[in-house]
Amino acid sequence: MVKPPHSESTVTQDEISGDSTCGTGFNPFSVLRYGDYKFVWSSEALSLWAIEMEIIVLAMFVLRDTGSPMLVGLIGALKFAGTLLGPLYGLMVDRFDRKKLQVWVRVFGAVLAIVLTILVFTDTLELWHAYVIVTLGSMVRMLDLVLVQALTADVVPAHSLHGAIGLSRSTLDGARVVGSIAGGTIFATLGLDWAYLAITVLYLLATLASLKVTSRVVANTVHAESIRTGLREGFRYVRQSELLPGLIFFSFLIEFTAFPIVNGLMTVIGDELFGLGGTRIGLLAASASIGALAGALAIGLRPNVSNPARIMIVGSLIWHALMLTLALVPPLWLFALILVFWGFSGGATFVGMVVGLLRSAPAETRGRVMGIRSLGIYGLPLGLLLGGWISEDIGSAAMIGTLGAIGLTATVFAALKWPALLRKSTKSTHPANDPATDSSSSNSASNSE
């Protein structure tokens, strides 16, 4: 059995027993003082910048070469082809060294980016190449998502977890702002080759940052005799919880109804409704991301969040109601302004959901819970395909209104189906959520050997 290392990445007892407001406040980066989180965050940030640039660049490449919104939605959907492997990835995260897993994920992503860059520079890239490489990358993208969330919960104490998740979500939305503008501008001015060269450099830097994370092994808490047994344990834990089924339902809902707008279909919306080009489409997408960044920070900077699930439900109601307003196609300036408020409610909703999930899962099942949650992300490719189809047959305005109406109805249904989401606090639901508990448990296991 590999023993967990004693290193500076372990959160000290003084940090855990301190004021519950530490790690929050007016400085969203204060949570970076928790050991390895500065490396976990920087690796995630660099990877997100690369991914967001890649989304807008490939969407513009496909639209330019095919003129088909359906094919634009398809390439966005293929990025999530590995979603069905989420529960298996969760078991891997619970069993193996999380640092080493993430390094291999980063290396794999960098290699794929290098291959695509070579194809672009040698002028041999064909449409099917892009689809194949995107599909291969999706096989490990879900593992990366589960790893980042598990590593964050490993190194940041429970009372500051909402600050870390808020920073993480803000980083994603900041990457969407920078990635959308940079990707669209580089593609429009310098071409696909230089855009993908920049993407490759970001992937390589993300790999270097992941090498700095200290090894983290939790295998001594997992005693499943087989993969099937380990997965069954994870599903049973979720099923018996009052909160987790509702939280996982929301993870599917928001991916299906809201995220397609900023994960591929913004190109179609900007082109059809307002006749925008590359840079202006990037700016339109950036307005939603600026709002989402502000929403995530608004939750992350709060000194205490006792019931993140309630924030999630209220945020989802506002989020989808604003989609119905966008479907009326107001003037471009008002459309962009509404997108800012739409993004704000979305950022708050997402942070509430992820914090609720991580607080409700003890360390020994955290990987599997987040792996099962990743199945909800399969809603995004389904939403992209549905949205692309509606846009092609009826129009982008009808697509926005349809997805918004579905989301609003489903949010009301979920609040009635799982009332514990509104009334039950997720604060300190499991002592194992606290890194101090994780550390002491690991030390006890090591000493008993």
- Structural class by SSE content: mainly alpha
Report the average pLDDT across residues.
77
CATH superfamily: MFS general substrate transporter like domains
Helix fraction by DSSP (H/I, runs of at least 4)? over 70%
Task: Sketch the topology as an H/E string, one letter per element.
Answer: HHHHHHHHHHHHHHHHHHH
Largest sheet features: none
Radius of gyration: 21 Å
CATH topology assignment: Growth Hormone, Chain: A
Unreliable stretches covering 5 or more consecutive residues: 1-24, 427-449
Q: Hey, roughly how much beta strand do the residues contain?
A: under 5%
Corresponding CATH architecture: Up-down Bundle
CATH class: Mainly Alpha
What is the general shape?
Answer: globular
The strand count comes to 0
CA-to-CA gap between the ends?
9 Å
Number of helices: 19
Number of domains as seen in the coordinates:
1
